[in-house]
Design goal:
Elements: E1 4-8, E2 10-12, E3 22-24, H1 27-35, E4 39-43, H2 50-57, E5 62-65, H3 89-104, E6 109-112, H4 114-122, E7 127-128, E8 154-156, E9 158-160, H5 165-169, E10 178-180, E11 185-186, E12 193-199, E13 204-209, E14 214-217, H6 229-245
Parallel strand pairs: 1-4, 1-5, 5-6, 6-14
Antiparallel strand pairs: 2-3, 7-11, 8-10, 9-12, 12-13, 13-14
Helix pairs in contact: 2-3, 3-4
Length: 257
């Protein structure tokens, strides 16, 4: 009875595990979904029309957009910063198509880090291309020294808007620190989004659409969700919404068994 959760896969280069390009999803995302009672399905990137994206998403109870490399700045009307890295328009356009289809059908969506940036661009928003260039009154590290080389992120506090879907997901838990691994962030919000969490330097750490359960986070809850109930609660709330949409309320989450 677990809802199928679409995870937008990513195209990766050939390497030690494959002699040709691969399509993949990060294991931490998959594990967090499974703990929450969902069944993740990794979708291979491809060219999709609006109709095709809608038909594909109609098969699923939810959508996860993962973290990853930078979105092509051309998609939000800017030239690339010299620190922009890893751009692959195939990934960008695939995820944007899924994101728009999920929003149109109000399919529960959780967008993480790059996923939040993709969602913002999908609805006409823009990004700060390199946070070190943005002057703030508070100096907060949003990624490790030497980004993007070190494998793990850094922690910093966040403030969450009361009454937001994120705040409801965290009810009964203290607001966890953000596990950040990024050098870009949302600048102008895309159409239909409201900011719902911020870091102490004023950057948007979460945003939500005004209709449906569509929550975007700039940090990585899945990184510590296996040991931090508050971070896992975000995935629980997401999969719980997918359960509710399928009339399966009352089925126990894996984390509660």
């Amino acid at each position: 009875m677990s809802p199928l959760i679409a995870v937008a896969g990513r195209i990766g280069p050939a390497g030690k595990v494959s002699r040709i390009e691969i399509s993949f999803a990060g294991r931490r995302y998959l594990d967090a979904i499974i703990r929450a009672g969902g069944e993740p399905v990794t979708l291979a990137p491809r060219v999709l029309t609006e109709v095709q994206a809608g038909e594909l998403m109609s098969r699923f109870g939810g959508l996860v957009l993962m973290g990853g490399a930078d979105v092509d700045p051309e998609l939000y009307g800017q030239d690339a910063h010299h620190r922009t890295y890893g751009v692959d328009r195939r990934n960008d356009e695939f995820e944007i198509a899924l994101c728009r289809a999920a929003a149109a059908q109000q399919i529960p969506t959780l967008a993480v880090c790059r996923g939040m940036q993709v969602a913002n661009v999908a609805f006409g928003g823009t990004l700060h291309q390199h946070l070190e260039d943005v002057a703030t009154d508070v100096d907060i590290a949003h990624g490790p020294k030497g980004f993007p080389t070190p494998p793990e992120g850094v922690e910093h506090p966040i403030g969450v808007a009361p009454g937001s879907r994120l705040a409801i997901a965290l009810v009964g838990h203290e607001t966890p620190p953000a596990i950040s691994y990024h050098h870009q962030a949302v600048d102008r919000l895309g159409d239909g989004f409201t900011a719902t969490a911020w870091s102490d330097d004023g950057h948007v750490e979460a945003m939500e659409r005004t209709s449906g359960w569509f929550v975007c986070l700039q940090w990585h809850p899945e990184d510590t969700a296996d040991v931090d109930p508050a971070q896992q609660r975000i995935y629980d709330a997401f999969v719980g919404q997918a359960l509710a949409e399928h009339g399966l309320v009352g089925q126990p989450r894996a984390a509660e068994r």
